[in-house]
Design brief:
With 731 residues, this protein is an alpha+beta fold. 57% of the residues lie in helices and 13% in strands. The strands form 6 sheets. The protein has a 4-stranded antiparallel sheet. It has a 4-stranded antiparallel sheet with strand order 2-3-4-5, with no helix packed on it. It has a two-stranded antiparallel ribbon with strand order 9-10. β15 and β16 form a beta hairpin.
């Protein structure tokens, strides 16, 4: 009977994991899938829960209360999900000013509520001085007596119904609310979450549970060290530079306020983003981003033939260049823009090879044109008769109500600076810049960011070039890997000076990363863990901290940590080499998001260590006859790391579910990112069941499994973003 139950559990488990993976692919191909709501998919979960519970009893798992409660928590969560699926109702309702409504739409059918809802107010709160929405707020009245305010991440509850802000009418006279009626499912699910959190905490803390027991069984070998030297990158040659302003003058020009990407920030931010986006680096031939920006702005003819535009693939062929970089003039032949025909084919829906490269090249060419025509430099705030401030560039259509003196100032001051630049009257340029700043402060007044936040952003821009650090960490981590393995196999200890040196360097790296993290937090006004760049930078910080903490117990953690920290920094720069700091989307303005991302990134960091650990064990096992003890030691380390990794991963997933419930009215939506995070959790939970799965008692089998399992992490974080899409594809 026990073997039959075991076979049912294992088979059902495998079928569920495979179904989840295949369903995300079908969803990508067909645009939608109904697999998750089918009777047979629900039955699979039911079979797993029932068979698993009976198997737990037959295995007498109740004698281990913490492990029993942990598995019971998962069953309770499944029961809550089933109750929600059967009895819960999720829909939408549309409200207009001074109209009552008592129905909401669910799957094409109108359901009636036992009370009336009336919209008595709606507003869109903007970030100060911008047109970027900070929040959407609906004020409603329930049954004419109880008033409530509904906004993003701020729900209203009445008579067992929950209401969420989801949209609004273009005239702002109406609002759309998500409605959830699930009186039992959410409560049961949250009980399961609480039981899960408590069980994991006890598993990590109690001395006789898996984590502490595994820690006691490990070797306490001393750490070996390797000296990490941060090598500065060579500066580009400074000869034959195009004309531009002196660096100090260019920096002064870029210290003005500007309206960019929905917020008010230093013009320096625009300069760095512009240079990095077009050229791929924040400097060009030794010129700073500010010099590049002002060079294109005031000396455009001298820059038109510069090989400044980095192109890829099909764009190079279309423009007609052999190398990576094109000049602006390379885009034209006999007055004709070379990409026009290809762009026309793309826009009408034809299949064009390398269309993404063509579109990216066109965007860069347009940005250059916009800059030297002055359209990127929105540095002039104008307050209209309604006291609303809008930002303009020199050639914009200015409001008729604008004071004639200010009108003339906006129209002429840029040309005046250009003439001063041509005449090399740099003191006069600085004086003119001070006049523009004075105008900005008078026109925008209290809408401008504080001086502290403004200066912090400029400091962040100067310090946030992590490319040299990323390359140094990855390179020396790779070299250190071989050194550490050789020393470890020979059981030789490092010199004390080397140990001290490596710890000093890692401490400096942590301090630098914390400074960058803190500056970005202060400037943006929210914890910077809301996009791919920020989460990978945070993961790099986690890796270095974990490396410092674990080095006394894990002999190979230093090269793993250096290599992984460098690689995560590099990955963060793939999609956005020097990302802009943007105002937060209203739905992301929740502290639960920060907890969700933080715990997930810590889990991924720990799982990455198990992957490197596995690869090392495989290499060591294949290279020597005396590797058994070493491979077993590495297996003990991996088993130890799996406990906190799964703890953080589970907490991260379920905190994300709670956040989703607070924001959208549902705690699970079968989005590809959610599904693959669940797959990752299910895969990594397997080797901890070595009593039922004896194969994982063999160290080399465990290492091979953990090395391969990391593919699910890569799929969750990168594959979903680039291949499957979904609501989480920004992350």
């Amino acid at each position: 009977m026990k073997n039959l139950l075991k076979t049912i559990v294992i088979t059902t488990y495998i079928v569920i994991v495979l179904t989840l993976a295949v369903a995300t692919i079908i969803e990508k191909i067909n645009g939608a899938t109904t697999i998750y709501g089918t009777w047979w998919f629900c039955m699979l979960w039911g079979i797993l829960a029932v068979a698993g519970f009976v198997y737990m009893i037959r295995q007498k798992l109740q004698r281990r209360p913490v492990a029993f409660c942990l598995h019971l928590a998962l069953i309770v969560i499944l029961i809550g999900a089933l109750v929600t699926h059967i009895f819960g109702k999720q829909g939408t309702m549309h409200l207009r000013y001074d109209e009552t409504c008592n129905t909401y739409l669910v799957d094409g059918s109108l359901l009636k509520m036992p009370f009336d809802v009336e919209l008595v107010g709606f507003r869109v709160d903007m970030y100060p001085g911008t047109m970027s929405p900070m929040d959407y707020v609906s004020n409603v009245l329930f049954d004419g007596q109880q008033q409530a305010s509904i906004s993003m991440n701020n729900i209203a509850q009445y008579a067992g119904y929950r209401f969420y802000q989801s949209g609004y009418d273009p005239d702002r006279q109406g609002a759309y609310l998500s409605v959830s009626h699930d009186p039992w499912g959410i409560a049961i699910t949250y009980i399961g979450y609480a039981l899960l959190f408590i069980s994991f905490a006890l598993m990590l803390i109690l001395p006789n549970e898996g984590f502490r027991r595994q820690m006691k069984a490990m070797d306490k070998g001393a750490i070996l060290a390797f000296v990490l030297l941060l090598l500065p990158t060579l500066a580009d040659a400074k000869s034959n530079n195009p004309k531009t302003l002196p660096d100090e003058v260019a920096k002064e020009y870029c210290s003005m306020y500007t309206y960019y990407n929905g917020r008010i920030c230093p013009l320096q931010t625009v300069a760095r983003t512009f240079t990095t986006k077009i050229y791929g680096k924040p400097t060009y031939k030794g010129l700073s981003a500010e010099q590049v920006y002002t060079g294109w702005l005031f000396f455009a003819p001298d820059w038109l033939d510069e090989p400044f535009v980095k192109l890829k693939g099909a764009a190079r062929t279309a423009v007609g260049i052999d190398g990576k970089y094109a000049s602006y003039t390379d885009f034209f032949a006999n007055g004709h823009f070379k990409l026009d025909d290809l762009l026309t084919d793309i826009y009408v829906g034809k299949d064009v090879d390398g269309s993404s490269d063509i579109l990216a090249a066109n965007e860069k060419a347009n940005l250059l044109r916009m800059l030297f025509e002055g359209e990127l430099t929105k540095i002039y705030p104008v307050r209209d008769s309604n006291n609303v401030v809008s930002w303009y560039h020199q050639n914009d259509k200015l409001p008729r109500s604008l004071d004639p003196d200010n009108y003339g100032f906006i129209r002429m001051v840029q040309d005046h600076i250009a003439q001063l630049a041509f005449d090399r009257k740099y003191d006069d340029i600085i004086y003119t810049i001070s006049k523009i700043k004075k105008y900005q402060r008078n026109a925008a007044k209290d809408l401008l960011p504080s001086d502290a936040r403004f200066e912090a952003e400029m400091l962040y821009n100067r310090l946030s070039s992590t490319r040299p650090l990323a390359m140094a960490l990855a390179t020396f981590g790779f070299l250190a890997f071989f050194y550490y393995v050789i020393r470890w196999m020979n059981e030789r200890r490092p010199h004390r000076a080397m140990t001290i040196a490596i710890n000093i360097v890692m401490a400096l790296v942590v301090i630098y990363q914390l400074v960058i993290f803190s500056l970005r937090w202060f400037v943006s006004g929210h914890i910077p863990m809301t996009n791919g760049y920020e989460t990978m930078q945070f993961m790099s910080l986690c890796v270095v901290v974990i490396t410092i903490v674990m080095q006394r117990r894990f002999v190979l953690v230093v090269p793993f940590g250096l290599l992984l920290a460098g690689l995560t920094m590099m990955v963060s720069m793939f999609g956005e080499s020097n990302p802009q700091i943007t105002n937060l989307m209203p739905v992301l303005a929740s502290p639960l998001l920060s907890i969700h991302v933080c715990t997930i990134m810590i889990a991924y960091s720990l799982l990455a260590f198990t992957m490197f650990n596995g690869v090392t064990a495989i290499v060591v096992n294949a290279s020597t006859r005396y590797a058994r003890g070493k491979v077993e030691s590495l297996a003990d380390i991996s088993r130890l790391l799996l406990y906190p990794a799964l703890c953080f991963l589970s907490i991260g997933i379920f905190v994300g579910a709670i956040w989703a419930n607070q924001s959208w009215g549902r705690y699970w939506g079968w989005d590809p990112k959610e599904v693959w995070a669940l797959i990752t959790l299910l895969i990594y939970a397997i080797p901890l069941h070595s009593q039922s799965l004896p194969i994982f008692r063999r160290p080399i089998a465990l290492h091979i499994f953990l090395a391969a399992a990391f593919l699910t992490v890569l799929m969750t974080y990168f594959g979903v973003n680039f291949l499957l899409g979904g609501m989480h594809s920004y992350a």
